[in-house]
Write a structure and sequence with these properties.
Chain A: Belongs to the aromatic amine dehydrogenase heavy chain family. The complex is a heterodimer of chains A (391) and B (180). Chain A has 391 residues and is mainly beta. Helix content of chain A is 6%, strand content 42%. Chain A contains two helices and 30 strands. The N terminus of chain A is likely disordered. The chains are: A mainly beta (391), B alpha+beta (180).
Chain lengths: 391, 180
């Protein structure tokens, strides 16, 4: 068929379709049929909401799906590339993604950057080049924003440890702070940031213009024998970090120029059981997973993924979720859970809905007050879960 | 901080290696890295072992009690006590060789695993093979004495493809370093 004949057929077809549509309305069906050709469109989003879960696709996969906790429905997706880190702007205007890409996808020139997305359109607004970052994913503490959203700290490992400071107002990398032997950041408002270290201390980096002072607490944990999970939890209102070790020792620390670490208590003892040990053949309930703890900040309740087993099983999925009242140091709720989830998160509103997921990608939304499973979501994603934090 | 700190010594060594090695110039310095790599993980491993010298069956971890020495394509092969990822032995590679087209990482994380045949502990370097898409075969995640990011030599989540021409992770090998 010649091009000319093709064009004439298309024109004729369009005219015929147009005249038929104009002649008689089509029979009414369930939805209203618009007698016009539709235009493609794009949705916009609401700003980040307290009852949204941002769920990573899992190891090696990209994208953070956003689920509404009350309906269990997906409402959008943030472009989080593989092994990137997501942070939500406290003012709700932007999503920030610290990521690493290569000029030829899997080879070529490496580029480290923070991509800035508008939270309503989810469109790329800006890119902030950075000198590097740790490519790992799965951790909440490698890319954090200050309470005012003006500064970001991005952990780097190449393989020496440092922290990149980024001015999020000017959208510019400022400088790097070397931090040997420590990893991840705990926010420390008005001071800088703090970090867990291999010598069993918390280091505090007090930023003073172009310089900094680094001080350390006394050693309070053994990084090789009973490590503290790198995914610590920070309460911005209380200026307090909550930490859990492999055996299930819970510690809190108040941040400031001098970081004060509380005496530990045992998760198992909080439930009237014997504290778990590091010895083999000592079967006990242990915390486990990649993101094994979540904090409901308004009520001061710590939620922990727990499994029965032996020591060095700290990545095993959960059989139960334990709720711990941090003020009374008591176990207040045990929720049996299916699917051996390795990640847990909780909405910071009064609904206090828990989400758990496992590496197979199925997520459950659970009412923390009743233990009832409200929604089961297939293929939600098997990775880290993020929520909006109360300021 | 002035007090004596053996971990900091290890870290200084690591920093000296890494600090003088820009990412772009790293290939030119791989000779030095290859010499340094087996050295810097010694301290934390020695420390972990110092805390666990008892190698009786009762002192063995669940992994060590069920480990075997005959099949390198199974997650319970003894050297894999702290491996995380796809076994290169299932991807066209070997226990210490990368599959064709992949590039071994010059640095690694380490494990200290007990060989059930002689009951002794050996230091194993888990070297990632890099520059190809994830192999996807025989995925294992064993965690004996595996720690967190602040002790990276003993953490198995980090992708160790530093200094290779591509940081894309393909699979992991388990090289014998020596007696622990």
């Amino acid at each position: 068929m010649t091009l000319e004949r093709k064009v004439s057929r298309v024109v004729l077809g369009s005219m015929l379709a147009g005249s038929l549509a104009g002649l008689a309305p089509l029979p009414a069906i369930a939805e209203t049929v618009v007698p016009e050709a539709e235009e493609p469109g794009v949705m916009t989003m609401e700003p980040p909401k307290a009852n949204w879960f941002y769920v990573r696709g899992g190891w090696g996969s990209a994208g953070s799906s956003i689920f509404d906790a009350s309906t269990g429905k997906m409402v959008g997706m943030v472009n989080t590339s593989r092994d990137s880190d997501l942070a939500i702007d406290p003012s709700g205007k932007f999503y920030y993604v610290a990521e690493t890409i290569w000029s030829k996808v899997n080879r070529g020139t490496r580029q480290d950057l923070i991509s800035v997305y508008d939270s309503k359109t989810l469109k790329l607004v800006s890119e902030i080049p950075t000198p590097g970052r740790l490519i790992v994913g799965g951790f909440t503490t490698n890319f954090v924003l200050t309470d005012d959203g003006k500064t970001a700290y991005d952990y780097n490992f190449d393989p020496a440890s440092s922290v990149n400071i980024i001015d999020m107002v000017k959208r510019k990398f400022v400088r790097a702070v070397e931090l040997p032997g420590c990893a991840g950041m705990i926010l420390n408002p008005g001071v800088g940031f703090s970090s867990l270290c291999a010598d069993g201390t918390i280091a505090t980096v007090a930023i003073k213009g172009a310089t900094q002072d680094i001080t350390r607490t006394e050693p309070f944990f053994d990084a090789a024998a009973d490590p503290i999970f790198s995914n610590t939890l920070y309460d911005r209102k209380k200026k307090q970090v909550v930490m859990v070790s492999y055996t299930g020792l819970v510690r809190t620390a108040s941040v400031g120029a001098k970081v004060e670490v509380s005496a530990p208590f045992s998760l198992q003892e909080a439930g009237g059981m014997k504290a778990a040990d590091v010895k083999p053949l000592d079967i006990a309930w242990y915390p486990g997973g990649m993101q094994p703890i979540a904090l409901h900040r308004p009520s001061g309740t710590l939620w922990v993924l727990m499994h029965k087993g032996e020591y060095w099983s700290h990545k095993e999925g959960a059989e139960e979720i334990w709720g711990i009242n941090l003020a009374t140091r008591k176990l207040i709720k045990r929720i049996p859970v299916e699917g051996e989830p390795g990640n847990i998160q909780i909405t910071q509103d009064d609904a206090a809905l828990i989400m758990v997921n496992g590496y197979k990608g199925k997520a459950l939304i659970i009412d923390s007050k009743t233990g009832e499973v409200k929604h089961e979501i297939e293929n939600a994603g098997g990775g880290l879960i993020t929520v909006v934090e109360p300021m | 901080m002035k007090r004596f700190n053996p971990d900091a010594m290890g870290e200084k060594l690591l920093r000296r290696f890494a600090g003088g090695t820009s990412r772009r110039g790293i290939l030119a310095r791989m000779g030095a890295a290859l010499v340094a790599a087996p050295v810097f993980p010694l301290l934390p491993v020695s420390r972990a072992e110092a805390a666990k010298p008892d190698r009786s069956p009762e002192a063995k971890t669940a992994f060590a009690r069920s480990a075997q020495t005959t099949d390198q394509t199974k997650c319970n092969y003894w050297r894999y006590c702290a491996i995380d990822g796809a076994l290169c032995t299932c991807c066209g590679g070997g226990i210490h060789t990368c599959p064709a087209g992949a590039e071994p990482s010059p640095v690694s994380w380490v494990g200290s695993c007990i060989n059930p045949d002689d009951g002794k502990a050996y230091m194993i370097a888990y070297r990632d093979c890099c520059g190809k898409p994830a192999c996807g075969q025989c995925n294992c995640d064993n965690t004996d004495r595996e720690t967190q990011l602040y002790l990276p030599q003993l953490n198995n989540n980090v992708i160790w493809c530093f200094g290779t021409s591509s940081m894309e992770y393909h699979c992991s090998t388990a090289m014998m370093i020596g007696a622990a």
